[in-house]
Every structure is written in structure tokens, then in C-alpha cells.
Amino acid sequence: MTDEHARPWTSWPPGTRVVVRRRLEDHEVPASGEPLTDVIGIVLGADERELVLRRDAGRAGHLPHAGHGARDTRGEVVVVPVDRIVGGKIVPPRPVRRPAGGRTADDR
After folding, report:
1. Nearest C-alpha neighbor of 5 from the set 79, 82, 81, 89
2. Other C-beta atoms within 10 Å of 20: how many?
3. Which of 28, 38, 73, 106 supports an S-S bond with 24, CB 3.0-4.6 Å?
4. Which pLDDT score is estimated for 12?
5. Residue 43 to residue 25: CA distance in whole angstroms
6. pTM for the model
7. Which of 30, 39, 36, 71 is nearest to 57 (CA)?
8. How many helices (H) and strands (E) does the chain have?
9. Rounded to whole angstroms, what are the CA distances from 105 to 2, 94, 100, 102?
10. Tens-digit pLDDT profile for the chain (108 aa)?
11. What whole-number distance in Å separates Cα of residue 30 and Cα of residue 34?
12. What pLDDT shows up at residue 26?
């Protein structure tokens, strides 16, 4: 298996939207005891030590699942050490939100 397949984040270009599953540090593990968490974000850069993402998940005012805090973290820069990454993949862009009623000004 090539390094690109074993560690796909090494080939993700900046601007790509991805999801990365990482092992939490002991002090980060929530009360639930879950040792892993996911980060959805836009790749800002990567090297042999870390993957840098800008969070791109959820919607304003949406509460994350239990144990992950109640603040909106979109746009926050997250540095993920590559030795903590257990998996990841490219995901499609976030869908465009349509206004209530399902119509846009162009539809009228």
C-alpha cells in the first residue's frame, strides 16, 4: 500500500473539504469516555507532522453532540497531529441552504 493510500491526507490540496477522525489526548476525553472525535473542515495545509483545517461543520446555534461543548466553532483553525489521525476522507461541499418555502429569488 502506498503512503498516499495509508495516509490520504498527505495528498489533500488546500481548499479541499474533508472529515478526519482523530484520537483525543487523555485530557480531552469527554465524560462519556469516547477516545475519538471527528473534525470536518477545509484543508489549509499539511506536512509530515500536522494537518491544519478550518472547521466547516454545523450551523450557527446548533449544539454539538454531548461532550463537545455548546459553542459554534465554524471557522476555527484546528491543528491535528498526524500521529493522532486514525482515518479521513474527502467530503462534498456543504449544501447551499434554501430560504424557507424552498424558493429563491431566481425561482420567482
Report:
1. 89
2. 24
3. 28
4. 95
5. 22
6. 0.70
7. 39
8. 1, 5
9. 49, 21, 12, 10
10. 555 667 888 899 999 999 999 999 888 887 778 899 999 999 999 998 999 999 997 655 444 444 444 455 568 999 999 999 999 999 999 888 788 776 655 555
11. 7
12. 85
Of the chain, the end-to-end C-alpha distance in Å amounts to 53
Q: What is the pLDDT of residue 94?
A: 85
Phi, psi of 48 (to 5 degrees): -70, -15
* pLDDT value of residue 106: 59
Spans of all domains in the chain: 3-93
User: In what helix (H) or strand (E) does residue 3 lie, and over which residues does it extend?
Assistant: helix 3-6
**Shortest CA distance to 12 belongs to which of 48, 54, 61, 45?**
45
Q: What is the CATH number of domain 3-93?
A: 2.30.30.100
